[in-house]
Specification:
59% helix; mainly alpha; elongated; 4 helices
């Protein structure tokens, strides 16, 4: 990846790639940036689905987030468990819903 990539990766996402006590991510910037792009796109893509489920099922926002999070944890998921948690938190942020419990 060239220095032309101006994507600003949030610290909350970079922390997914930090070993305890480390200052530098265990993966190169290109990998972290690619994973961030995937996770951000996924969160953006899920916003309408989450709103629809909230309306269709008549359940609380936290229940919608929990169900979507469980869906992101399936064996064939494209994200890791840590990334799934980040996507769920980002989704809540995009929807202006309370952040899910840890």
């Amino acid at each position: 990846m060239s220095d032309d990539n101006q994507t600003i990766i949030p610290r909350s996402f970079i922390e997914l790639f930090l070993a305890p006590g480390a200052l530098k991510p265990r993966e190169p910037r290109a990998v972290v940036a690619a994973r961030y792009d995937l996770c951000e796109d996924l969160a953006q893509m899920l916003t309408e689905h989450a709103r629809t489920k909230l309306f269709e099922l008549g359940i609380a926002e936290q229940d919608v987030l929990e169900r979507l999070h469980r869906g992101l944890l399936t064996e064939d998921s494209v994200v890791t468990p840590d990334e799934a948690r980040w996507v769920t938190r980002r989704l809540a942020e995009l929807l202006d819903w309370p952040a899910p419990a840890a």
